[in-house]
Design goal:
Layout: H1 2-14, E1 22-25, H2 29-43, E2 49-52, H3 55-63, E3 77-82, E4 86-87, E5 93-94, H4 101-109, E6 111-119, E7 132-136, H5 141-154, E8 160-163, E9 178-183, H6 190-198, E10 203-206, E11 208-209, E12 215-220, E13 223-227
The structure holds ribose-5-phosphate.
Ribose-5-phosphate binds next to helix 2 and helix 4.
Amino acid sequence: MSDDFKRLAAERAAEDVKPGMKLGIGTGSTAEHFVRALGARVRAGLDVVGVPTSERTRELAEAEGIKLATLEELPELDLTIDGADEIDPALTLVKGGGGALLREKIVAAASLSMIVIADESKLVECLGAFPLPIEVNPFGLGATTKAVEACFARNGLQGKLVLRGGAEHPFVTDGGHYILDAHLGRIADAARLAHDLVAIPGVVEHGLFLGLAAKAYVAGKQGVTVVEPAK
Ligand SMILES: O=C[C@H](O)[C@H](O)[C@H](O)COP(=O)(O)O
């Protein structure tokens, strides 16, 4: 069911793509539905160029026959369409469940607009039930972990930090980094936490997306709803 909702939201977003657009293309199971829907439009004659946010998305988009470029070649994009792990009423997001948060954030920030696509299970009143991914440099992992824990304490947060994949076989991102998943439960002040996390030298990026999403297409039993940031 949830996968059908993801597809519905993705297909709605694909209708917003206009000829000539330079598109950021997200990562994850919902974004994959978008890539397939976009592929169908491209095969029907739509001329667009996409910048993928992961190697996984690049491979699928190529297989779908979508024309691709790098962000070096196209540093300014019209629109990014991507999934999310959590969406709050201000359209602040948690992203990175699939490990692509760094490229996703760089691409979204280089876009004039970002549309989020999701099934309704991603809508939350308060972020934090989904573990917050924090991308870190492998160098000095122990020191960075301690600094992140201290940052949580200063923010009044408690929770376990888990190295994704485990110490034996850590998950490695497309950028060659590791991910610490922070099980926080509740993030009351996402802006303050985001600000404090990026100030830690070993932290490359985190999965909090603030002020990037213009709207979300959220699908459920009632169809697709357009969610805009609460004022
Ligand atoms: O790193 C992955 C991304 O941020 C995904 O967009 C996010 O995890 C949502 O994925 P899905 O659409 O598979 O739920």
